[in-house]
Design brief:
The chain has about 180 residues and is of the alpha+beta class. The protein has three helices and ten strands.
C-alpha cells in the first residue's frame, strides 16, 4: 500500500511540475545612479602643483605652479626653467560643468591663429592683411579635476599656437603636491 501512495505522490508531483503556466518575462528596468558633484570649492585648489616625469620624456618640462588665497581672490606663481611669472588666478565653469583655472596675464609664446578659413582670406589684398596683425592671446586656462590641472600647450596645423614654449608636451599635467 505504501508503494501506491508513493507512486500516487510521485505522479501528482510530476503532473504539477508540467502544469505550470509560463510567465511572460518583462524586462526589469535598470536603476541609474547619478552622482551630483559638490559645488566648485575654490579652497581645495590652493596649493603647489608640479609636472611629473612622463614615459619617453627627456624631463625638459619642469613646471611648478603655486595657487594662494589673497584678500581679493587668488593668485598664482608659475616657475619654469627660464622664467617666473605671477598674477591673478580666476575660475570659470563651462556649460557642462567643466572647471577651469585661468592664469591671467600670461602672454602665449606663439600664435598663428585659425587658418582653416585661410582660402577665404586669400582674396584680401596683402596691404589689408599686413595692417591686420594677429593679437597674441593672453591668459592660460587649465582644466581642473580633483588634484590635477591640465593645460593644452599647443594646437595643430589648423590652429597653430604654443602657450609655454619651454615645455614640449601637448598636454601639461600639473599634479598637486601632498605637502
Amino acid at each position: 500500500m505504501k508503494k501506491y501512495y508513493c507512486l500516487l505522490f510521485g505522479f501528482a508531483f510530476l503532473v504539477s511540475c508540467n502544469d505550470k503556466k509560463t510567465v511572460s518575462e518583462t524586462p526589469i528596468p535598470k536603476i541609474v545612479t547619478v552622482t551630483l558633484e559638490k559645488p566648485f570649492d575654490k579652497k581645495l585648489i590652493e596649493g603647489t602643483y608640479e609636472t611629473k616625469a612622463e614615459e619617453n620624456d627627456s624631463d625638459d618640462c619642469q613646471l611648478s605652479l603655486k595657487i594662494t588665497k589673497t584678500k581679493s581672490g587668488y593668485s598664482y606663481f608659475l616657475k619654469t626653467k627660464t622664467r617666473q611669472l605671477k598674477g591673478i588666478a580666476t575660475f570659470k565653469i563651462q556649460k557642462y560643468g567643466e572647471k577651469y583655472l585661468v592664469l591671467e596675464g600670461i602672454k602665449w609664446d606663439e600664435y598663428e591663429g585659425d587658418i582653416s578659413h585661410e582660402e577665404e582670406n586669400d582674396s584680401i589684398s596683402d596691404s589689408e592683411t599686413s595692417s591686420k596683425e594677429l593679437e597674441i592671446p593672453v591668459g592660460i586656462e587649465a582644466a581642473y579635476v580633483k588634484d590635477t590641472l591640465t593645460i593644452q600647450n599647443y594646437g595643430n596645423s589648423m590652429n597653430s599656437y604654443t602657450k609655454l614654449s619651454e615645455c614640449g608636451r601637448k598636454y601639461i599635467r600639473l599634479i598637486k603636491s601632498q605637502k
